[in-house]
User: Fold these one by one.
Assistant:
Number 1:
Amino acid sequence: MIRASQHRVVAVVGTGVVGRSWMRVFARAGLETRIWDLDPVRTDLAWDWYKSDQKRIRKQGGMRKAVARNERSNVIRCDDLAEALA
């Protein structure tokens, strides 16, 4: 059983369509979500997509700005696989 006070961390390895979806699910659940891709450009693209998707959801009235900011703070872009898995 995981206690609310425990720090929970997940790593998303690969930031294609599926990885991006998991990134959103885990961040929304309040987990520290470390993302990494072999191609650093793809990691940056996933981050840009995530921010853009949150903006779209906010404009539709589905998310407050503070909630989006909090969720984004859960996502950490990692420079190497070891960092993501630490």
Number 2:
Amino acid sequence: LQRITGISAFVLITLQIFLSTNRKFTKLHMLNGILAYTFIFIHPILMVIYRYLYNSQIDPFYVYVDLCVLCDGPYEFYLNLGRVAFWTITLTFITARLRGNIAFITGKKVGEWIGNNWRKLHLLNYVAFYAVSFHSYNIGTDSVNNLFVYFFWFCQAVVIYSIGKKIVEFKRS
């Protein structure tokens, strides 16, 4: 289940970035964002369950917030990228979903700032995509499968195309 949610999240993040390049897909983009975040949310929960089943240890802090600057090794570093991506995507998801009502939660000044700048905050999703990419490619169990590797590079090309298209649109306007 963890593999399925991880790969599904990676595919849906890629699709999310691609859908963001065309305003005709706004409703699909919003629905896909909810679906993508569902998989993103479930993926680390399954890690907590996995660690409990194999170590008899329930430690959500390790999975969610045990960030390291100088990690104990490559595995911990790439796991750390997953944590950073999780919190980055969580931030952008919450600001996008609540952008109209965020002033009620955060106060008027913060709410206005988020309401005016949520699209700029959304740029963090590109950073999160690459954090997820390094995370999945280096510690994902499917990264040894040639089909996944080809698909991984296809997703990289889709995101680079999407970024290029956004830059061209930005320069035109």
